[in-house]
Design goal:
The chain is α/β, with parallel strands linked by helices. About 65% of the residues lie in helices and about 5% in strands. The protein contains 23 helices and 5 strands. It has a 5-stranded mixed β-sheet with strand order 2-1-3-5-4, sandwiched between helices. The N and C termini lie far apart (about 60 Å).
């Protein structure tokens, strides 16, 4: 049953992948450019271009596929689809290990569904989300196995260390799970922690984090970079942070909301999530005090999952992103999907126990709650399906713009951040793009060589979204040294064909 549900989830995502749903963004284009360069042997980046954090292992996975099949979005997303399948398998195994087989089947059914926010986190080929969520699921499964059978799994320590190291290299937002996994293994398996097993874990960790360690020894300090980007010290009212994290972030990241919005009736899951998490934690703590050693290890594993979700949520609330950009930043809660079994467990217990022993009323209550959960997930999944045509139009517009640039022989363009690297990747670098901000000053170029190449070209195009401030600024006053030859409107962009005086840095 779990295999059938999992296959349905993979097939659903494969169909959307073929339809270019969800739409690509420039961050995905940056990962695609890294994959293109790796496949050609031009660069071997440790981190994504323009930043000193977020490891590029995903681009290394995609590199041979890009070389064989070309620079299509579906090609870049194939590793994410494979990662999702592995993620499902690991979460099923983790749930079956710490809970019951039929509950693991139920969790698989929940994970097979997919709203807009969930699909973006799982399928967009940018790395740091689909791969790290899979690594977190593997880490927590390894921790659970070590907790339950510490004397029988020596090599699991090496795998545990490798996954922890990979997470530390790739995305530090998942660090709460590394911390709770380490505490779980150290507490439950302390009697089995021989020097050899600790050495295996350390060696695995060093191997997994090797690119990060090498980079920090020779270049920048990634920790200082991440602290500067955390947003914890930026001004934002705490009620706004809690609203963005609990009432928006939890429903969005759990798959309860429509594309880019969360209706009031869909926000019920935020308070329910917190309530279930508290109930599950209290039950686990009481059981740890009263149970036999074997059951105590199981309850410790459940508590570790809850602690990982709680720490992830606390870190998100501490960041101003939860208040300033709550819809888009809900992706920062993506790793808490690994803890969803622990959160849903009280619902499952209430449903099964109520049906078995406590009469009609408790059974009706349990069925109602589980029914509300499944209905919300199904509605959100349906809302994404209904929104597919809008996303398809975006893909068509991107192709129209590329065709227009190619037909005009335009290979060097200026545009905004969210357009530039999409054009560069999809055109296999036939179009080189330099980023501008709203005032038409140089913006954030993730791949810096493009800026110099565009500035040195005599014939360029300004590709500006029609409704943007930058388009209005360009219409009022063109940059110095730029002469407009013609104007065309294509797919929501104003395309100015210009002649410019080549510039040198």
């Amino acid at each position: 049953m779990a295999a059938a549900l999992g296959f349905a989830g993979v097939l659903y995502r494969a169909i959307l992948l073929a339809l270019d749903v969800p739409p690509a963004n420039s961050d995905e284009g940056t990962a695609g450019l890294a994959a293109l360069h790796i496949g050609e042997g031009r660069h071997w980046p440790t981190f994504f271009y323009g930043q000193d954090y977020m490891g590029t292992f995903y681009s290394y996975l995609a590199a041979p596929l890009v070389q064989v099949f070309g620079t299509q979005w579906w090609v870049l997303r194939l590793p994410a689809l494979a990662m999702y399948a592995v993620f499902l398998l690991l979460v099923f195994r983790l749930t079956r290990t710490l809970y019951t087989p039929w509950f693991a089947v139920f969790v698989t059914a929940v994970m097979a569904l997919g709203s807009d926010r969930v699909l973006k986190d799982q399928m967009i080929g940018v790395g740091g989300y689909s791969d790290v969520a899979t690594a977190v699921a593997g880490l927590m499964l390894a921790s659970a196995l070590l907790a339950l059978q510490p004397d029988k799994r020596r090599t699991t320590f090496a795998v545990w260390g490798l996954l922890a190291g990979y997470i530390v290299w790739t995305h530090w937002l998942a660090l709460p799970y590394v911390v709770v996994a380490a505490l779980l293994v150290a507490w439950v398996s302390r009697s089995a922690l021989t020097l050899r097993r600790v050495a295996l874990a350390v060696c695995g960790f060093v191997l997994g984090a090797a690119p990060l360690l090498w980079f920090n020894l020779h270049h920048a300090n990634s920790l200082s970079v991440l602290l500067s980007l955390s947003g914890a010290t930026e001004p934002a009212a705490w009620p706004d942070r809690l609203y963005g994290a609990v009432l928006l972030g939890l429903p969005l990241s759990s798959g309860m909301c429509a594309p880019s919005r969360c209706a009031t009736w869909q926000m019920w899951w935020g308070p329910a999530y917190l309530t279930l998490m508290v109930v599950a934690a209290v039950v686990a703590l009481v059981a740890i005090r009263r149970a036999d050693p074997g059951e105590r290890r199981v309850q410790a594993g459940r508590l570790a999952l809850l602690a990982g979700a709680a720490l992830t949520l606390a870190a998100y609330v501490a960041s101003s992103s939860s208040a300033v950009t709550p819809i888009e930043s809900a992706r920062y809660l993506h790793y808490a999907m690994v803890s969803l079994p622990a959160v849903l467990w009280p619902l499952w217990v209430g449903l099964t126990a109520g049906s078995a022993r406590r009469g009609v009323i408790p059974a009706i209550g349990g069925v109602a709650l589980v029914g509300a959960l499944v209905a919300s997930l199904l509605v959100a999944t349906g809302q994404l399906a209904a929104y597919r045509s809008h996303y398809a139009d975006k893909a068509d517009e991107e192709q129209q713009l590329l065709d227009r640039l190619r037909a005009a022989g335009l290979t060097h363009v200026y545009s905004e951040y969210w357009t530039c690297n999409r054009l560069a990747y999809r055109s296999a670098e036939q179009v080189r793009c330099a980023v501008l901000d709203e005032s038409l000053a140089p913006g954030f170029d993730r791949y810096r060589p493009y800026r110099d190449q565009v500035r040195q070209a005599e014939r360029v195009a300004y590709v500006l979204p029609e409704s943007s401030a930058m388009a209005g600024n360009f219409a009022r006053s063109t940059p110095a040294g730029v002469d407009v030859i013609s104007l065309d409107v294509v797919a929501g962009y104003r395309v100015y064909l210009c002649r410019q005086t080549p510039q040198q840095d």
